[in-house]
Amino acid sequence: MSSPEDEALAHAAVDALVGQLALAPKPGLPDPRDLTARATRRDHRALCWSARALLPGLTAMAAAARRTGEPSARLRAELGAIGRSTEHTVALAGGGHRGALWTLGLLVAAAALQPGADPAETTTLAQHIAAHPDRRAPRRPSRGSTVSARYGAAGARGEARAGFPHVRRALTTLTTARVQGASEPQARLDALLTVMSTLQDTELLHTAGPMGLRHVQAGARGVLEAGGTATEPGAAALSALDKDLRARAWIPRGSAPLLAGTLFLDALGTRGCV
Q1: 10/66 Cα distance (integer angstroms)
Q2: DSSP 142
Q3: Model pTM greater than 0.85?
Q4: Residue 94 pLDDT exceeds 80
C-alpha cells in the first residue's frame, strides 16, 4: 500500500520531468515553443501525457523503499520489476522517458528511504541502491550499454553508481544562478548546460561519435564561460549552440533526465516533500 508521502514524492518527480520538458531553448532538444511544426507540438503533448503515466510506478517505487527500509539487493530487484512494468504502461501512453524513469525512480526510492535528507544524502542512498545488480533484468544488451562498452563511457548506470555527480553539480549551478539574479528558466538552462558540458552522453556518442560529443561539451562550456544564459553574450552563445545542434541533428538526450533529477531534488528542498 502506498502512502500520501509516496504519492507526494511521485508527483514531485513527474512535475520535475514536465518542467524539464517545458524548458526552452534546450540546445538540440525538443522545443515546445516551435509553433511552426505540428509534429513538434504533437510530440511535446505526447511526452507530457506519457510523463503522467510514470505516476503509479514512481509511487510504487517509493512505497517499496519505505517497506524495505534499506538500499538492499531486494529493493533493487523490486525497483527493477516495477520499472519494467512502468515502461510498458508508458509505452501504451505514447512512450519515452526511459532515462528519466531510471534517474527519478532511484532518487524517489532514496528520498523515501530517508525523508528530509539533503541532496548529497539522497544521491548517496541512490548510489547504494544502484550498486546492486538487477538479477531479474533481461540479459539482452541495450544500445546504451553497447555504446558504453565501446567507448568506455559511464552511461546511465555508471552515473547512478557514482552517486549522480552531474545532478549534484547541476543543483549547485541552479542555486548559484538564482542567487546571482537569473530568472528561473535561465537558472535551469545553466543547470542543463552544466550537465552537457561534461556528461559522456551515450546517445551523442551513438549518433555523433567522440568528436561530436566533445563538440557539444565545448559548446555548453562556452555558454557558461560567456556568463551563462542570463547574460547577453551567454544568451547569444546558447542560441548559436542550439542552431548548430539542430542543423547537425545531434540530440543530447542523456542530459535531459539528469536535469529532471536535479529539479526533483530541488523540489524536495523548496517544497518540503517527504
Answers
A1: 13
A2: P
A3: yes
A4: no
